[in-house]
Automatic annotation (TrEMBL), chain A:
Enzymatic class: transferase
The keyword Translocase is annotated on this UniProt entry: no
Assigned protein family: Belongs to the ubiquitin-conjugating enzyme family.
Superkingdom of source: Eukaryota
Matches recorded under CDD domains: UBCc_ScPEX4-like (cd23812)
One of the Pfam families matching this protein, by short name: UQ_con
Protein name: E2 ubiquitin-conjugating enzyme
UniProtKB/TrEMBL annotation, chain B:
Span of domain RING-type: 114-328, 118-166
Similarity annotation: Belongs to the RBR family. Ariadne subfamily.
Cofactors, names only: Zn(2+)
Organism in which the protein naturally occurs: Ficus carica
Pathway in which this enzyme or protein is active: Protein modification; protein ubiquitination
One Pfam match: IBR
Protein name, entry field: RBR-type E3 ubiquitin transferase
Amino acid composition bias (Polar residues), ranges on this chain: 551-565
Gene Ontology biological process terms, A to Z: protein ubiquitination
Length: 178, 596
């Protein structure tokens, strides 16, 4: 939890603003937390959980959308929420390996406009998850973070892309069959 | 008789400039459409400068000021383009693209609900503590405020969008100002400054003066962006690239030249071609003859061809256990080329440097020549008019600059780097001869002029002084014509026929670099008048902007004083002592100044 801030360093205004911001973002996150509890049944594809000790750290499990190579997989996302949330977007990355043009293959970083310049404070963590699921179903091969994946799609090799993506889904996102 | 004629001639050629000066002089009655002008925009006149564009848009579209500003920022303050979009795509599209939303909210009559749920903090907030933006989205004031603060700190003051998802609307600046100033008055000021400076930052007709330390001014030009201007702080620059005035070089040529001179890239080139670094001590080694087994002074032996370390056993044609050497012929060609390029560069650079150095030396003349003149003035009763001295000197400075910049121009114009495919070798030769003839003539006359001006004419008797005078006046006229011709040749014969139209130069101005005049008093009047058509909401909220407008008015009289001559001749003279050069009063033939 919050450990307090060195008041001498921040000065009066900085202190107030910092606390104000943390308060505002915490309040909002609490609201979202409650909402998530309520909606859990409503959206079976998304399971958002908050870190027990830190409300600024969240993880999500999302189901790969059907009729995509990610179908059947469960992908884990990590959220790092900034203090200025919701005025600034959370940082989200895939913890589960995924073969997708807009996800960095090594770091799991996601290239999605709403997480960058098109962010609006009206988004919530839940809606971000929904946007990411939509991205999985509709990749944008023209702005790739994973060039191999992007090139397959751009060159029209849909089968190649799908089989690679399916293989990684099977390897990384599905429970190992004993 | 001869003297009289040439005198007349000279003044004749100076008449245009005189007219030009009178125009510049008539500050308060100045009509902007009358010929090319450039203006200095100071901190104080910044608002007044924007005001006209804002008013045009406000009047045509019957808009409020902040909407007009949003539109103009979106279209980079290009009123013509904005109107073109209006005609082409219609008002709705124009507004939508720029994020201006003018919607009549019909629910105004209905009593507002006591509390509103803010989608950002997900709290129920009393409706008195919420703000509905023009796009119709309503959030609580504290969320708005934080949003604005984040955006202003991100440097996005000019386009703060509504918080709602996919809402492109730009937030009303008065709301931003109001809410932010409640908690962060400093930041609200910053916001206002960003909005004001957008007129400079986002406007292709306006540029900051590049002086260091920065004088705080910006320059606005009327039409041709290929021009050279002088800010009221005295620094002269090329408007197009913001570096020092460099015509007849094009901006690209000048950029390449500066870079080349800085890196001494030819030397580096030569070193890379002619030397190999020793594999042991890594010093560059030049081969002074002999076979390809080279020994560095550190004792290491290596193969000259591949640079790899070898043993010392060798015959005339091979090194034991080592064989390479397929690209030998290639390398020799490359070495020759590098050498030729280096010599070529050195030739042009030496010339350029020589003239720049002369320019610096001659700038010292400005002080000493005044002494000479005052000595003569005391001595002579017959000869009263010494304006020819200053005329000649100014002409010398002006032509010397042209001459020195003509060398980098020639280097690129007739080299392989830029226009290899644009002309055949024969064409190039013809053009080069044409240009070099002109350059030579100019050079000869400039040197002559310099000689006469440096002569100790204060010790001469009357007849000899008269003769010097005649020569100086003659040579001034000649060099002016030659400069003019050289520019014409460059524009019409050299750069004109090129396929790539990226090389443009500022036109030659006999008077020298155009000095930007301050925004004249009539702007101040406009500021005054504009108080009336301002939308009512600005009454209290737009205070900072209006206040700036106020200072404009009061500062104007002193600001526009620069155009009165008596005031500025001595001011300019004082500047000769400023190190760094380039600040000479080339802008006016001194005859005009001195005759008054």
């Amino acid at each position: 939890m919050w450990k307090g801030i060195n008041t001498a360093l921040l000065g009066r205004h900085g202190y107030n603003r910092q606390i104000g911001l943390r308060k505002a973002s915490r309040a909002r996150l609490f609201k979202e937390y409650k909402e998530v509890q309520r909606e859990k049944v409503a959206d079976p594809d998304i399971q958002l959980t908050c870190d027990d000790n830190n409300i600024f750290k969240w993880t999500a499990l999302i189901k790969g959308p059907s009729e995509t190579p990610f179908e059947g997989g469960v992908f884990q996302l990590a959220f790092a929420v900034p203090e200025q949330y919701p005025l600034q977007p959370p940082q989200v990355r895939f913890l589960t390996k995924i073969f997708h043009p807009n996800v960095h293959f090594k770091t799991g970083e996601i290239c999605l406009d709403i997480l960058k310049n098109a962010w609006s404070p009206a988004w919530t963590l839940q809606s971000v998850c929904r946007a990411i699921i939509a991205l999985m179903a509709h990749p944008e091969p023209d702005s790739p973070l994973n060039c191999d994946s992007g090139n397959l799609l751009r060159s029209g090799d849909i089968r190649g892309y799908q089989s690679m993506a399916r293989m990684y889904t099977r390897l990384a996102a599905m429970p190992k069959k004993g | 008789m001869e003297d009289f004629l040439s005198d007349d001639d000279y003044y004749d050629s100076g008449r245009d400039s005189l007219d030009g000066l009178e125009n510049e002089d008539s500050g308060p009655q100045w009509v902007p459409s009358k010929g090319p002008t450039c203006k200095v925009i100071t901190k104080e006149s910044l608002l007044a400068a924007q005001r006209e564009d804002l008013r045009r848009v406000m009047e045509l579209l019957s808009l409020r000021e902040h909407h007009a500003r949003t539109l103009l920022i979106h279209h980079r303050w290009d009123v013509e383009k904005l109107f073109a979009v209006l005609v082409e795509k219609g008002k709705a599209c124009l507004f939508k693209e720029a994020g201006v939303s003018i919607v009549e909210h019909r629910d105004l009559d209905a009593p507002p609900p006591p509390t509103v749920m803010c989608d950002i903090c997900i709290e129920d907030v009393p409706s008195g503590e919420t703000t509905k933006m023009e796009c119709g989205h309503c959030f609580c004031n504290s969320c708005w405020t934080e949003h604005f603060i984040v955006k202003i700190n991100d440097g996005q003051s000019k386009r703060i969008k509504c918080m709602a998802h996919k809402c492109n609307a730009i937030c009303d600046e008065s709301v931003v100002r109001n809410l932010v100033s409640k908690t962060n008055p400093d930041l609200a000021e910053k916001f206002d400054r960003f909005l004001l400076e957008s007129y400079i930052e986002d406007n292709k007709r306006v540029k900051w003066c590049p002086s260091t330390p920065h004088c705080g001014n910006a320059i606005r030009i009327e039409d041709d962006q290929f021009c050279e201007v002088e800010c009221s702080c005295g620094s002269q620059f090329c408007f197009s690239c913001s570096s020092e005035a460099h015509s007849p070089c094009s901006c690209l040529m000048w950029e390449l030249w500066v870079k080349k001179c800085r890196d001494e890239s030819e030397t580096v080139n030569w070193i890379t071609v002619h030397t190999k670094s020793c594999p042991k001590c890594h010093k560059p080694v030049e081969k002074n003859g002999g076979c390809n087994l080279v020994s560095c002074i550190c004792g290491q032996a290596f193969c000259w061809l591949c640079g790899g370390a070898t043993g010392r056993d060798h015959t005339w044609s091979s090194i034991a256990g080592h064989s390479c050497g397929r690209y030998k012929a290639d390398r020799e060609k490359k070495a020759e080329r590098a050498k030729r390029d280096l010599y070529r560069y050195m030739h042009y650079h030496n010339r350029y440097k020589a003239h720049t150095d002369s320019f610096k030396l001659e700038s010292k003349l400005k002080g000493t020549i005044q002494e000479k003149v005052s000595i003569l003035e005391e001595k002579e009763s017959k000869l009263r008019d010494f304006s020819w001295v200053n005329n000649g000197l100014n002409r010398l400075f002006r032509s010397r600059r042209v001459l020195s910049y003509s060398y980098p121009f020639a280097f690129y114009m007739f080299g392989d780097e830029l226009f290899k495919d644009e002309m055949t070798n024969e064409e190039r030769e013809i053009k080069q001869n044409l240009f070099e003839d002109q350059q030579q003539q100019l050079e000869a006359n400039v040197e002559k002029l310099s000689k006469f001006l440096e002569a100790p004419f204060n010790q001469y008797d009357v007849d000899k002084v008269m003769e010097t005078r005649m020569q100086v006046i003659n040579l001034s006229g000649i060099t002016d014509t030659l400069c003019q011709k050289m520019y014409e040749c460059i524009e019409n014969d050299l750069l004109g026929p090129l396929q790539l139209g990226i090389h443009n130069i500022a036109p030659y101005r006999s008077k020298g670099i155009e000095r930007a005049s301050e925004l004249s008093v009539c702007w101040g009047d406009k500021v005054n008048n504009s108080g009336k058509p301002l939308p009512p909401h600005c009454g209290s909220t737009a205070d900072p902007l209006l206040m700036l407008g106020g200072t404009t008015e009061s500062d104007q009289p002193s600001g526009s004083g620069s155009s009165d001559e008596t005031g500025y001749a001595p001011r300019k003279r004082a500047k000769t002592n400023v190190p760094g050069g380039g600040r000479f009063d080339l802008n006016l033939p001194a005859d005009v100044v001195d005759r008054n």
